[in-house]
Write a structure and sequence with these properties.
This protein is an alpha/beta fold and 245 residues long. It has a single domain, classed as Alpha-Beta Barrel (TIM Barrel), CATH 3.20.20.140. 43% of the residues lie in helices and 18% in strands. The chain is built from eight helices and eight strands. It has an eight-stranded parallel beta sheet, sandwiched between helices. The longest helix is centred in the first third of the chain and has 24 residues.
Length: 245
């Protein structure tokens, strides 16, 4: 009986230890957030605006870029040079968000110019490009085809159809889904996106990244634990500057 109890106890400790190790090795990954909510079981990449948000003493991972809604009217070259300096920071994992948006009242040619500058920085430092794209996927795909970038392109806040997803995936892009994942009607698109091309995000919403993962897992009929492993591997592969230590 004592031998049996010792065996059960040993198995219990092994079970607990294995789950602790799993928990440490595979945190939830939020690749795009506008708030800083550090948690022990999560890695978050905070998106900062280079001229309104501090980063110099940041202990959090972050990305930096000029959103098409907030492009500067003056000192344009200075801001681009500033971003080029910021990306050298150890905690800066990506360029963006940046991109193209036909809804915003800003000349599309100006948006393209700034977007191309961000692409060049992403290419120079070989770090991912986090992209905001609204009603401009045709133009975005043409630019990608023309440039054939070596760096990873990630469409953030993706909520388009399977057809648009296919076009982006065929081009080699990754898709990051946030709040839209919680809409049960979007499950079909989530099922279509391969897990090894998928990221999760909270963006500027108050949703919980764990809920996004659960929505992914339900749609894809995967265990959440397996999904955590895959998205962690995606993150480690794409965000080459990432170092959990």
């Amino acid at each position: 009986m004592k031998h049996y109890l010792k065996k059960v106890s040993a198995l219990s400790y092994f079970y607990l230890f294995s789950h602790v190790i799993f928990f440490i090795m595979y945190p939830y990954i939020d690749i795009h957030s506008h708030s800083s909510q550090p948690q022990s079981d999560m890695v978050s990449v905070r998106c900062i605006n280079p001229y309104t948000q501090p980063f110099f003493d940041s202990e959090d991972f972050f990305s930096v870029g000029l959103h098409p809604w907030n492009l500067p009217d003056i000192h344009k070259d200075w801001y681009v040079r500033f971003i080029r300096k910021i990306v050298r920071h150890d905690k800066c994992l990506a360029v963006g968000e940046c991109g193209l948006d036909y809804i915003v009242q800003r000349e599309f040619g100006v948006q393209e110019k700034f977007f191309m500058e961000h692409i060049q920085i992403s290419e120079q430092f070989n770090i991912p490009l986090i992209i905001h794209c609204v009603k401009a996927f045709h133009e975005l795909l043409n630019i990608h085809k023309k440039i054939n970038p070596k760096s990873v392109w990630i469409i953030h806040g993706f909520e388009k159809s399977k057809e648009t997803a296919k076009q982006c995936l065929d081009a080699g892009m990754f898709l990051s889904v946030g709040k839209k994942a919680l809409d049960s009607k979007y499950s079909e698109v989530l099922r279509y996106i391969p897990a090894d091309k998928l990221f999760a995000e909270t963006d500027d919403s108050e949703i919980c990244i764990m809920d996004v993962y659960e929505a992914f897992a339900n749609a894809k009929q995967m265990r959440t634990e397996d999904l955590k492993i895959q998205l962690y591997e995606n993150f480690s592969h794409c965000f080459s500057k990432f170092n959990l230590s």
